[in-house]
Design brief:
The complex is a heterodimer of chains A (350) and B (356). Chain A has 350 residues and is mainly alpha-helical. Helices cover 73% and strands 1% of the residues of chain A. By secondary structure, chain B is an all-alpha fold. Classes of the chains: A mainly alpha (350), B mainly alpha (356). Chains A and B meet through helix 7, helix 13 and helix 15 of A and helix 6, helix 12 and helix 14 of B.
Chain lengths: 350, 356
């Protein structure tokens, strides 16, 4: 008996995979990712027409490399935002893990790369679990907790690194090659990120635990009454987000030359911005991992395409700002229309 | 420090006077605890850190704290209504850039400052319209305007820095009152603090903000115009942030696009540390004043004690976490005590009726 009511509970955010009974609504709700995808495609087409070099193999590769880290972070952040929480500490987690990776390689250059990846993910998971525990246990808004851990983790990074920086020269060549070599036209780290994002997207739209996150974000009280273990699910979301930030940290060390005390600082708001642009509602309950990942690609592509279009580089950030506000406006219009549709439908039923 | 202590007394006494049931006593309130921590810390620093109790310290400490303190005022009111403004530091940066470009373009310094303020006003209006009238979530909108205003600052001034401001004005910005070491600029800042304190605690408008933060529906039913209140708060925030940007520019004699960047999180940390609830509905200006001064003096003392900047960040974060977790623990205790008290009261009443 539980499955039909479960379906009802989750109907609003469901955008795919729920079968024919939601097809009308589902098609409508696909709009959440539609605006950002259209914007991305339009941007790429316009830029390519103006400057054909933009989509050259090298250009494509740069685009993908630049978006990789942000894509992972935005996907993880989506999980947390969907539950009506937020994690502002991801930039600091990334910094700590990236510096940790540099340290491992400078002291043990022969450490196998997969092991380093696992260590980085585990390290990130521990930091994410710390956020999750504090949020769940103290029942304090995660905005405040993670603002605190943003400082604490950054401080730890400062204390650990001091003025020291690790450079790519310390790291084995094979590790740096992860962001140089391509498989199927994609740099390996991008491929890795894409696979992770797809797994996460399947988890969020298909698995019961993933659907629970939407239920919690739509109405925490109802989710509790329904029997969802809210604390455990929210904790898991923070844990996974932390491990993705950890993975992003290791990949950061592969992609960029220097890692030090300030690596990744200020990333947090960019990540939230990418998720918002990708159609993730800031107050939880709706939005998809894929949308957020596309949002991250869009924000990163804008920078390169403005350069390709020879727009003054100083305009870039202002354009990003306009984009975020437009995304929120579109979301607002869509939800107003959605509410109106629902009202009309109910009116007809009576 | 004594101003903040007396201010705490005033507000809370007024509160306890209006309540029939004996409410929380002012000397055990959240604000009072912040003031105690601040006083204890200052005494400790004066005794243990050799150069702390000097006019030089007071001067630098207060000059450092002014931008945070200024912006914390409208931020307090905004968070009390349950909203947030992340774009404050970008507005400060934009006003700084505008001031620099106007002055470098040959405008009179006072005209340049007025235009920088006006730009802050426009930025506040932009935020206010989107949040109060269009009804968009403030967290998302101000993340957007955080990027937008900082971007506009870059558009205005680019990579350049303007530094040749008139000497007498930049000197005035960091001048001290006689030999006390207290900067002259503290006086206008105090005026702003008192203004926001009175606005929040002594006017119907201010009481309405608590109502809005506590329960939107209730506020609506008692006839509070939510949209208009929020709009004016964001306008005030824009204006105050722009003045903080102007102060920043003159104090460091440098107008750059990245001035004050990252200040929004420091301000919010200080406000929350000062006892304002991120959910809205709770908090006070004296508490925030103590919170801002605590973070400021802690940072300064650690720096004087040759503790590196490294630990400073960690301490800010730990303070913030401790300040939000402590109430959770103490509220569990006070719920228990409240239950006990109710039980006692009920049994007293029962015996009273029995006697009658």
């Amino acid at each position: 008996m539980s499955s039909p009511s479960h379906g009802t509970l989750n109907r609003a955010p469901a955008s795919k995979g729920l079968g024919p009974h939601t097809s009308g609504l589902g098609a409508f709700l696909k709009l959440r990712e539609l605006p950002v995808t259209v914007a991305l495609v339009a941007l790429v087409i316009i830029t390519t027409i103006a400057n054909p070099l933009f989509l050259s193999p090298q250009g494509m590769k740069d685009l993908m490399l630049n978006a990789t880290i942000m894509m992972l972070l935005a996907a993880g952040q989506t999980m947390v935002i969907v539950t009506r929480n937020i994690d502002l500490s991801v930039g600091s987690i990334l910094g700590l893990v990236a510096f940790g990776t540099g340290t491992i390689f400078s002291s043990m250059p022969n450490m196998p790369i997969p092991l380093v990846l696992l260590i980085g993910i585990a390290f990130g998971a521990v930091l994410g679990a710390f956020n999750g525990l504090l949020t769940v246990w103290a029942k304090v808004p995660s905005l405040v907790i993670t603002l605190g851990t943003l400082y604490v983790f950054r401080g730890l990074n400062n204390a650990w690194a001091g003025p020291k920086q690790h450079f790519a020269g310390d790291r084995p060549e094979a590790f740096g090659n992860l962001s140089v070599d391509t498989v199927l036209g994609m740099p390996i780290i991008t491929l890795l990120a894409v696979i992770v994002v797809i797994i996460l997207a399947i988890f969020m739209s298909g698995a019961r635990q993933g659907r629970d996150l939407y239920a919690i974000g739509s109405d925490p009280e109802a989710a509790k009454l329904f029997g969802i273990n809210v604390s455990r699910r929210v904790f898991t979301a923070f844990l996974i987000n932390g491990s993705l930030a950890g993975l992003a940290g290791v990949l950061y060390a592969s992609r960029f030359n220097a890692v030090g005390a300030t690596t990744g600082s200020g990333l947090e708001l960019d990540v939230v911005a990418a998720a918002v642009v990708g159609g993730v509602a800031i107050f939880g309950g709706s939005g998809t991992v894929i949308g957020a990942a596309i949002g991250a690609i869009l924000l990163n592509t804008i920078t390169s395409s403005l350069t390709a279009l020879r727009v003054d580089k100083f305009w870039q950030q202002a354009i990003v700002g306009v984009l975020i506000i437009t995304a929120i406006l579109i979301d607002r219009l869509a939800s107003l229309r959605h509410a109106k549709n629902l009202r009309e439908k109910e009116g007809r039923n009576v | 420090m004594s101003e903040s202590a007396t201010a705490t007394v005033d507000t809370s006494q007024a509160l306890s006077g209006t309540q029939d049931v004996r409410g929380p006593r002012w000397y055990t309130g959240r604000d009072a605890i912040m003031v105690y921590i601040l006083v204890v810390f200052l005494l400790y620093a004066m005794i243990t850190i050799p150069r702390f109790a000097t006019p030089v310290t007071t001067g630098f400490l207060l000059l450092d704290v002014i931008p945070t303190l200024l912006i914390a005022m409208p931020m307090t009111l905004i968070i009390i209504t349950g909203e947030i403004d992340l774009s404050v530091a970008s507005i400060a940066g934009l006003s700084s850039a505008v001031l620099g470009v106007m002055w470098a373009g040959g405008a009179n310094i006072w005209v340049s400052m007025a235009i920088a303020l006006f730009v802050g006003l426009l930025a506040g209006i932009f935020n206010g319209v989107l949040i109060a009238f269009v009804g968009l979530p403030s967290l998302a909108v101000t993340i957007g305007t955080l990027a937008l205003f900082r971007g506009l600052a870059l558009v205005v001034i680019g990579d350049n820095a303007v530094a040749n401001f008139p000497k007498e004005i930049t000197a005035f910005a960091s001048s001290k009152i006689g030999t006390t070491g207290i900067p002259v600029m503290v006086i206008p800042v105090l005026v702003v603090v008192v203004f926001f304190g009175l606005l929040l605690h002594k006017t119907a408008f201010g009481r309405g903000l608590y109502a809005m933060g506590y329960s939107k529906d209730a506020a609506h039913f008692v006839g509070i115009n939510e949209g208009r209140s929020k709009f004016w708060l964001y306008v005030a925030s824009g204006l105050v942030s722009a003045s903080a940007g102007i102060f920043w520019t003159l104090r460091y004699t440098s107008a750059r696009s990245d001035n004050a960047s990252g200040l929004e999180l420091t301000v919010i940390a200080a406000v929350l540390l000062g006892g304002v609830s991120i959910f809205g509905g709770k908090g006070s200006v004296p508490g925030v004043l103590a919170g801002v001064l605590l973070i400021g003096s802690l940072n300064y003392a650690l720096r004087l004690g040759r503790v590196s900047d490294v630990v400073l960040v960690t301490v800010t974060g730990l303070l913030l976490i401790a300040s939000v977790i402590a109430p959770s623990i103490s509220s569990a205790i006070s719920t228990w005590r409240h239950d006990q008290k109710l039980r006692r009261q009920l049994s007293d009443e029962a015996t009273a009726t029995a006697v009658n």
